[in-house]
Structures are given as C-alpha cells and as structure tokens.
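Section 5.1 Outputs to date
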Amino acid sequence: MVVVLDLRKEEITRLGHRVLVVTDTDRLAAGQQALQEVFSSRLVRSVLVVALGPDPRLPPALTGESRRVLWVGDPCGILWNADTGEAAHGPEVSSEAILIDLLSQPEVFDEVVGELGEIPYGTASPGWRIVAGRIDPEVLAQAFTDVADRFAGPPQQDPAVFGSPLASALPVLSGTADLPADLLDALVPDGRMDRLYRQARDRLDRATRALDELGYLSTALARAAVVDEVIAAGRALAEFRDAVARLFADVDHSDEDAPGVLAANGIKFATPAGMGHAEIVAELRADVDTALGERKSLTRLVSRLRALADQSAPIGSAAFVPGCRRRCPDELLNELHAPPEFPRGLLNRFVFWRRSRAWWREQLSLGPARTALDELRTLLEQVAASEWTLGEARMHTSDAARTVAAALAEICAQVSATLTDWSRAEAGQAAASPALDEEVTVRLRDRGGQLREVITGDLLDAVTGWLDPAWPALEHGDYRDVQAGLERRVDETLRQYRYHLAHRGVQEKPEFGTADAGRQDLVDAVWRQSQQVVRALQAPPGGQMLQLCGDRDLSLLLRQAYAVRFAPRAVRGQGNPPGVVWTRSGQYAGTLRLVPLRPGTVEENWSGDGA
C-alpha cells in the first residue's frame, strides 16, 4: 500500500512503508520539517516526492542518496519527442490526478523509486504513453442500475426441490421424499398402542371366524355369539381410535414431557441419524452455496427457502385428530355396537340361507372395520414419524430456512440501494482524460452485458462470505445472531469493492471472489485485443510522449530517458516486452518515461531557516 501525503492541504496523520509526498515547488521550504519527520520515521522504507511547479528548489531534507523526486513543471504537459526534440501542444488538461493514481500502485511506486536510484541526483521529469482501462462512467452507471434491479427484483418461484444426491435430510423434512421405512415402524412391540391395535385386530379376526363358521343348521345361540364378537370388536376399535386421537391432541414434540408420554404409550421417539442440527444446516448451506455458485437469482433463492420453511414446518399432531374420525367414523362404530340380527323366515331353503349370510356379513361392516383399523395405525405411524420423531428437526429446518431467507432479503435490499447510489454518483463523473489513449475504454462501452455479469458474479461471491458467520449460529439454534452485524459486513465489503472497481478494474478478481465470473472473457476481448495497449507497452523511451512540463522546461531536461513499463497482471500473456511491471490495478497500461534534469538545474542553496 502507498500512503499519499499531500503537504498542500493536510498534516501528517499516518505513515506506511511507502510514502508518496505531493507538494508545490514553492511550498517545499515550508514542508522541510514534515519531510524530515517522514524520512526519520522507522515505519517508512521508501519516499517518493512529486513536486509541482516551476523552479525545482529542494530543501535539505531532499539531499543525499535517498532523494527520489519527480518534478512536474506543468501538469498539463506537452507532447515531446526526446530523440528529435520535436514538441507540440498537449491536451491542456491537468494530469496531476492520473500521475498520483499511477504512483499509488505499489508495483509502479517501487519500480519508479528503483529507477530514480540510477538517475543522477535522483530527480527526473515524468512523461508517459498510457492506455486508460477505466470504464466509461455512463456504461458503469447503467451496469450498476441493471445489477441493482436484479437484486431488488420481484420474488420468483423456484420449482426446484432439494433432491441433491448429497442431501438426505432436507428432502425428507420438506416432504419432497417419502419417509424412510424405519421411521414408519413407530410402535414399540407389546407397547400400549401396539397392544390396543392387536387387541382390536384379534377381535375383528374372531368375529370374522365366528361368522365364517356359522352354518345352515346353526342355532340362535351361535348367531348371538357372532353378534357379541362384533360388538366386542367395535369396542376394541373404538378404544384404539380414541387412544390415537387423545395422543394426537395431547402430545406436541416441543413439550418437555413428550418423550415420557410417548414412551408410556409405546411410541418410539428419538431423532434419527443424519437429522441433527449440524446435518440439516450443512445440507442447507451446501444448497445455498450451490445456487450462488451457479449464479442463480437471489430473489428466486429467497422464494425457494421460504417454500422450504413452509413445507418443513410441523403442523402439530392435533391437526390430525379429525383424520381419525374420517378413517374410523362414528357411523361405523355405531354399526358395530348395534349390529343387525340375522334375517328370519328364510331358513327353509338353503339358497336363501347363503344369501342371508352374505347380506348379514355386509351389514356387520367387519371389512370396513378392518380397513379403518389399518388406516388408523398407518396414520399413527406417519404422524409419529413426521410430527413427533422428526418434529424438532422439521422445526429447525423451517426456522433455519426462513432465517437465511430473511438474511438474503436484507442483503438484496442493501446491495440494491448501494448500487443505485453508485449509479447516480457515476453518472455525474467525467469521461476518460484526453491525456490517455481511450481504446480500452471505448471497447468496454460495447461490453455492458459482460460487465453486468462480472459485477453480478462478484457480488454473489460476496454473499457467500456474508453468510459465513450465520451457519455456526444456525447449528446452535441462535437464529437472532444470523443477522447480527450483517449490515456492517455488507457495507464494508461493498465499500472495498467500490474501491476495487475504481482502482483495479473489473479484470482483477476481488479478494472475496471465488470464481472467474466471465472476467477472463472480458479481459481477452478488451485488453488483449487492444493494439493501443501493445503500442503503449512497446513505446521507445525517446519517442513522442506526453511530458509533464512546460515548453520552457524542455531546456532543463537531458535527451535521455528511462522507461517503466506496466500493465494489469490480468493482461499478462505472450507478446509482451520484457521488464513489464505487472500491477494489481486495472486502470492503466503503458510506459512511464523518466527524463533526468541537466546538472545544476535543481537548486539546493537554502538559508539556515529554510525560508
């Protein structure tokens, strides 16, 4: 990092390993003490001074071997060929900000400091041929607006289900996969509910056998015995139905005494393997990370998580009480409690007997009773699995999914609002400086779609980092902690990303980036196909460049030049000249020329008080 210290408008507030001092030549005397403080600091390793204005007069602090000074006689500059001496008017706009920005790149700073160490007196006039890589403000503003719309778009339904081969808990808990067979085996053998079920089953079997054994010559006593068996079976069925209904009404998975009550009634109650909080959160995180990695819409992901929350939320076993009566209605029990008698007067003929017994079998409703019994048991096992055994896991899944959805919705709102602000600010910026070649900037104007994809991909990568603290909190059920500090994290990352775009460009992946996001295609299409970049990197040091001095200052310069060639490291490839400094910045590529001053040009005679 390069610390910029502008002695024209600020005091020394911080220092670093690299310090770029900016001042006017007529204020160098007043800056003697500040310069001395910078050079004497143990924190500072190298200092580069940019002195703007005529008559370079250096104070005692800038004498000796450590002197590294760039003298800018006129920041508007002049087009000058150092080999032939030919000169022409420059763009007549100040390039001071561009020079400061360029020297603020650590790689360029170090190379310039090294080159000045080879130049007599460590002082030179800078010039350049540079291609600007800055995105046109209008293009960038539109890109920000488009990406903001993506993050703030209306909720979209996502029909996808959690069916990943790696997911085992979420499909079951959300109801998109069948309950495992071992979970449906919910009755403890010889437990209370199992005994009630078997008692009703056995009673129905006895009534069916008694009816089957009823013969043509059977007595009234035998027929009465069948009626008694049917009544007993009806009572057993009613007892089982009422016991199931009472359990449904009285037990909730969240009750502290639920395990004891269920155990007393012979119901298995234990969270199955793979359905714990850690496993649920791991599958949820994997699904979210996959969606982000595939560049899925955040609004669609929010809708998907909310749907998961709705699907997995337990409704409580009490909601299934009416289902008991639907499967075993009171009308059926009434028929079993008061079965009709065997028809009289038709015993004289065998054919009538067979028909009468068939009619009676139908009226006794033993078949529907057996069906009702089995359906009650099936309902009990399903409710025991989904509402009791998996109740806690389903509740955690629902709460976790809804919490993550809320965090993502907050992220969407904050990102969209910030990008909208960036768009407004960018729209008011000036276009690229005429002091620079603009071919890359022009090429970027035609790549708005790719630019949007890169920015969108970067921000989706950032979402992964923003959610990192949420997952451990969800594992422990600390749902309120998920959004704690989220706004601050998002704001800090967006601030860093704004700086990244302004100083390093889109071709350099941000620190939080995890994927290419289409960036390499953009670099290939814009930077590597630019002939101006090639020419700027291969420009001879003595050729025509913009020299940052006035026409009268040319007489103070030697006709020899040192070159510092630089380009974004994302552009690195074949065909580049040797010695190029590869920078993390994506704003500039080209050649910086350092022209030494003639001996005796720099005045070093100061009075003792530095005035």
